[in-house]
Amino acid sequence: MVDTAELLTSELVTNALQHTTGGAVLVATLSPGPGPRLRVEVQDSVARRPRARVVALPEDHQGTSGRGLFLVETLADAWGVTAWDSGKVVWFELSDPRK
């Protein structure tokens, strides 16, 4: 879970820093109890919602960017985008697989 959380957090922060000009705020919350959940939120100042890039052609697989949201969609238990003030919060949640 730690490796997945690190990867997905890195992807969301990188997206926020590459596609906005106002920086980003990172908040991580671990819900205690049976079946703990990690929720990571990255807030930025641009209201435009992120869109996953579709990789359809074999030559597209050589690119070094554009797969962050695909990874989030694939590896997170839940994820989404919430409007916030003049920007947005992109978030994901992971459950402890041992519970």
Descriptive overview:
The chain is an alpha+beta fold. A hairpin with a 2-residue loop joins strand 3 and strand 4. The chain has helices spanning 2-19, 68-75; strands at residues 25-31, 37-44, 78-84, 87-95. A four-stranded antiparallel beta sheet has the order 1-2-4-3, covered by helices on one side. The longest helix is centred in the first third of the chain and has 18 residues, at 2-19. Helix 1 packs antiparallel against helix 2. The model has no long low-confidence stretch (mean pLDDT 85). It is built from two helices and four strands, in the order H-E-E-H-E-E. The chain is globular. The protein is 26% helix and 31% strand. It has one domain (2-95): 2-Layer Sandwich (Heat Shock Protein 90), CATH 3.30.565.10.
List the helices and strands and how they pair.
Elements: H1 2-19, E1 25-31, E2 37-44, H2 68-75, E3 78-84, E4 87-95
Antiparallel strand pairs: 1-2, 2-4, 3-4
Helix pairs in contact: 1-2
Q: What would the keywords be for this entry?
A:
99 residues, 26% helix, four-stranded antiparallel β-sheet, single chain
Summary, kept brief:
This protein is of the alpha+beta class and 99 residues long. The protein has helices at 2-19, 68-75; strands at residues 25-31, 37-44, 78-84, 87-95.
End-to-end separation:
12 Å
Placed side by side, the strands forming the largest sheet appear as 1-2-4-3
The CATH homologous superfamily is named Histidine kinase-like ATPase, C-terminal domain
CATH fold field value: Heat Shock Protein 90
Structural class: alpha+beta
